[in-house]
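Risk mitigation, structural track. In case the binding assays with zinc ion fail to produce interpretable data, a predicted complex structure has been prepared as a fallback.
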Amino acid sequence: MGFRPFVYRLAQRHRLSGWVRNTPAGVIVEAQGEDAPLADFMRAITAEAPPLAVIAAICSEDIPPVAGEGFEIIASGGGAGVIQVAPDCDVCPDCLAELFDPADRRFRYPFITCTNCGPRYSIITGIPYDRPFTTMARFPMCPACRAEYEDPGNRRFHAQPIACPECGPRLAFTDAAGNEMAGEPLALAVELLRAGKIVAVKGIGGYHLAVDAGNDRAVGALRRRKKRDEKPFALMAPDLEAIRAFAQLDAIAERLLEGPERPIVLVEKRDRTQMGLKGRGTGDPHISPQVAPANGYFGVMLPSSPLHHLLLRENFAALVMTSGNLSDEPIAYRDAEARERLAGIADAFLCHDREIHTRCDDSVIRVFRGNPLFLRRSRGYVPRGITLSAPQRSVLAVGAELKGAVCLTRGEYAFLSQHIGDLKNPATLRSLEETAAHLGRILEIRPELVAHDLHPDYLSTRAAAGMGLPQVAVQHHHAHMAACMAENRLAGEVLGVIFDGTGYGPDGTVWGGEFLLGGYAGYRRVGHLDLVPLPGGDAAIREPFRMAIAWLHRTFGAALFDLDLPCLAEVADRKREIYLRMIERGINSPPTSSCGRLFDAVAALLGVRNRVSYEGQAAIELEALAEEGGEAGAYPYVLVTTGGGTVVDVRSMLRAIVEDLAGDEPKAFIARRFHATVARAAADVCGKVRAACGVDQVVLSGGVFQNRLLSEELAGLLEAAGFQVFVHRLVPPNDGGIALGQAVIAGHAFS
Ligand code: ZN
Ligand code: ZN
Ligand code: FE
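Fallback model:
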């Protein structure tokens, strides 16, 4: 994005010597000079950065002065850290201007691109990164394009996906049966969308299903046909101004939205008070309340391809753009497959003949403390590297089960793959194996080791066993901790607060509310949440009321059914005995210390939700409720010291919640107090561990830390107590980031 020339000019202006170079993990600058100009230089890097540059973070350290004068740009090329494959990127400002310039030969051409922009990772079939090894291979360049391609002074010099209306891919518009319709494809798509129809649109990494976001009936139809009862739909708006009409933006959200990666960013609805938590309306005529019911946020993105720009600009204030799939299936990306799988959902298809080679879902980000917090790291970020604290042997890590993603390492770089989906069937398993092979090929990595979860039954674990490489089994929460350490380049000993859904514990219980002391080489469990049964195993994940019963039983014993709580009505009188027996005898009810399940239990207690249609839904809605609550203090809890570490006993909190419910305390305050209690209890445990072991670096990881309110409260308490707190900024805290941790632990085990 012209970042190196920008740094060069800045260095000249401040009379600094040194160099700047690109690495797979970002830009490295070595600058030498007097204190004041150096400080000004540092400030200017953020303040004056080129429009397309996204500065996720700046890390600096003092190094000894060296001899030498002048400032230089060190060319990439050569060396172990160099990769040829860039992430997919939205159209650049120059190409965008041409796209809407009637005098340009690519006026309104949806496949306009140059050296600075366009698809990369999704269209690459092999290396070297050259046109024959992309899905553009089948389009011979016309003389005009070839001339640009060969002219070193041209913006399209060696732009591999170069194309124009003469020689490049074409749009097509078909009905649901696949018959091409006469007329201009884009105009037809706009017309159908205006009429409230559902149109499947081929994007960069797969198909989206689009409807007019302002058309309540159309959004409802999409919800029904997609069998997606409550999960929020993402929105695409033509520009920031359009988003401001229905959501609140700050400078960081704007920078993330406008970045070339074009992620979905979660932004607060503009008027939450009018909105009402249960989705009574958005207070905005452009957005149907069915887009994101029971949620204070919209997931929004800006166009990520020229086709999107053409579709949106001057046509729609916002479109729903949700992944082209049925709930829980991977996104469709091949044309024939898309037509087949989306046939019952889409009324028509806006497609084209440039193939997508690698499926890449949209990335999803929240803003936390001025940095991105990834909920899903995929299109736009893959295969960007992450710099590790030390070089290691090449490892393939296969992740866990939910939110699958693999990680490959080479030297001091780790490469996390795109989001693969939940590994619950052979199709996603195949996708995982293909991804590992393809990523290895284009990054030229031959793994020497394979790392996997400790859980013997995960499909990923079985796949790892069949790879013919030495295996390293990694405990789930140790991997979460190592992922957070790795991206923060920590080494040595830290304390990990790992609040998660579920993971296989080496003691046969289901872990998920863990305090781990250690590093890459190993860990010791120094504390955890109290154990309760997980009644019915996986069924308890789908039905949070089961967790409420488990926690109520832990607190009140068999008398729990005497309580007057709406969630208990889920269990008919005749079934109550069965539940009690199941819990008391541990039948199909493994003990769990899961923090995510505690959130589920409290959500059910508060009447937020007894059943969920996707993992984490109850906790997300509980957080939304708590955000309405305001400061409200914490509930009591007890820390119990045992041989196995500190156990957080929250029975007194549950008793207080039940009392508050009986006293008609507003539920938002109860939800808020619950968040505060979990944060205080966790900070207390950290204090005890520090008193015993002297550790003062804390990493926060695990899926529960997608919860911003909890993260904010806990990080604040820990910092106030003098801890150094590290959170995720480069990979998700959920299982989507776990492969990074597995890879580093395995690399360490075989160093
Ligand atoms: Zn461009
Ligand atoms: Zn051409
Ligand atoms: Fe996890």
